[in-house]
Amino acid sequence: MTTLIKDALCYTGAKFEKQDVLIKDNTIISIGISISSNGVDKVFQAQGKYLIPGFVDVHVHLREPGFSYKETVKSGTLAAAKGGYTAVCPMPNINPVPDCVENISVEQEIIDRDAVINVYPFASITKNRQGRGELVDFEALKDMAVGFSDDGTGVQDELVMKQAMTECARLGKIISAHCEVNELLKGGYIHDGEYCKAHNHKGICSASEYEQIERDCRLAEETGVRYHVCHISTKESVDIIRKAKERGVKVTCETGPHYLTMCDEDLLEDGRFKMNPPLRSREDMQALIQGVVDGTVDVIATDHAPHSKEEKSKGLAKSAMGVVGLETSFGVLYSRLVLTGVITLERLIDMMSVKPREIFNLPGGRIAEGEVADLALLDLDEEWTVDSNDFVSMGKATPFDGWKLQGKNVLTICKGEIVYEAL
Fold first, then answer.
1. Parallel, antiparallel, or unpaired for β 85-90 and 190-191?
2. pLDDT tens digit string along 245-259?
3. CA dist 205 to 27, 367, 369, Å?
4. What is the mean pLDDT of residues 284-305?
5. Count of CB atoms within 10 A of residue 156's CB?
6. Which residues contact 221 (CB under 8 A, 6 or more apart)?
7. In this structure, which of 266, 299, 321, 381 has its CB flanked by the most CB atoms within 10 Å?
8. How far lies 336's CA from each of 8, 148, 259, 348, 369, in Å?
9. Which three-class secondary structure state does DSSP give residue 38?
10. Closest CA to 231 of 159, 306, 322
11. How far apart are CA 166 and CA 153, in angstroms?
């Protein structure tokens, strides 16, 4: 199978250059001007469109095995392909928990059978993802997992986290931590801010996040582990990570599109605005944006977390935590960060395509001869309105419903195969 993409503006890292890209099987075999289409199976005319290494999301929930009524590997990876992603890293809050070779093999079998893009699963840090107690056998799992995370649960015991970090440092593996101090939650479910007080809700304090990040940065400094912080949402988290980086700690972090574009002032009494961590204050949002600008925030991940319609229909107080994001992330970020001049398009592509691969040691990330053909084609002129009824994902709960956006993925190629096309 040969595919030719004609006259695209190709991402070179520093800038975009007009090029033709010829793909044979799963590999980019030629890049240049005016490559002949003779004998080519499929030709795409891409004039005015931007060809990039496919996006990578290092924090998603595909819900299989165990919760296929929310999402499946098939539906989740199809949604990712629509959004321009060629790789995702699913978190371990599934059933059975991938805390041993046998359990992660069950997940891998589904991935091998049903995924339409690259999927690199996390294993848990603790047995049954309890956030305390017995650690997993890191040695046995190291070649089967992209990293280790108890996402959905913060590791509560400092000694347990230090032992996990020590072992992962020895093995050269990464810890990707959901940071949350359970004893500070006190039944909260939205940010402990002005909206919370005005509407008599129970709040989640910022300290429940940043206190554990502070602890973990100290432990990462002691152990030398590669430490990645999931979905940061507070100004204190940004400051702690910035200072840890200045000290030479091997720490990286992610935040989500919703934390960069919304705050608790935007809340409505609707489950589609409920996620963990919650939408914080305007001041927190601005600190996160500054973290993106100055490089403290390394990558943007969606924390795509689908639930059933029923689970998300119970308002802020009783709906399940989590929103979907794979099909809206680029449009939201391009419209709200690039078109407004906060960051460049090149910087956004770096955060969504390149840096995730560097941090998690994943293949690809370059458009060059000999590289795997994991690519997305962006139409930056397309204007569209978010309508969750059109989502490929089984999850429909998004705070972006009804947003008017500009910029959309129109073609996704993974390992040389066309997995999404809207040209």
1. unpaired
2. 999 999 999 999 999
3. 48, 43, 50
4. 98
5. 18
6. 244, 247, 248, 249
7. 299
8. 24, 32, 12, 11, 33
9. coil
10. 322
11. 20
N residues, the chain: 423
Tokens of 184: 């500070």
| Cβ-proximal residues to 143 (8 Å cutoff; 6+ apart), any chain | none
- Is residue 306 a contact partner of residue 61, using CB atoms and an 8 Å limit? yes
Distance of CA 73 to the CA centre of its chain: 15
Read off the tokens for 147. 């990293």
Please name which of 301, 302, 325, 324 lies closest in space to residue 311, comparing C-alpha atoms. Answer: 324
Interval 184-194 mean pLDDT: 97
What gap in Å lies between CA 292 and CA 262, rounded to an integer? 15
Closest CA to 402 of 331, 339, 315, 352: 331
The residue behind tokens 């919650």 is 278
User: Each residue of 34-62: pLDDT tens digit?
Assistant: 999 999 999 999 999 999 999 999 999 99
For 211, 227, 252, 414, the CA distances from 191, given in Å and listed in that order, are 16, 25, 24, 39
3-state SS, residue 139: helix
Residues marked as catalytic: 303
Residue 252 corresponds to which amino acid? T
- Residue closest to 225 by CA, chosen among 349, 335, 118, 138: 138
DSSP codes, 57-83: EEEE---TTT-TTT--HHHHHHHHHHT
pTM: 0.97
pLDDT (0 to 100) of residue 178: 98
Question: What sign for the dihedral angle of Cα 78, 83, 88, 94?
Answer: negative
Residues 6+ apart with CB under 8 A from 86: 53, 54, 55, 56, 117, 118, 364, 374, 375, 376, 412, 413, 414, 419
Residues with Cβ within 8 Å of residue 25, at least 6 apart in sequence: 1, 416
What pairs with residue 154 in β-bridges?
none
SS3 category, 43: strand
Burial class (CB in 10 A: 0-12, 13-18, 19+), 360: buried
pLDDT surpasses 90 at 22: yes
Measured CA to CA, the distance from residue 223 to residue 36 in angstroms comes to 54
Cα–Cα nearest to 88, from 356, 415, 422, 376: 356
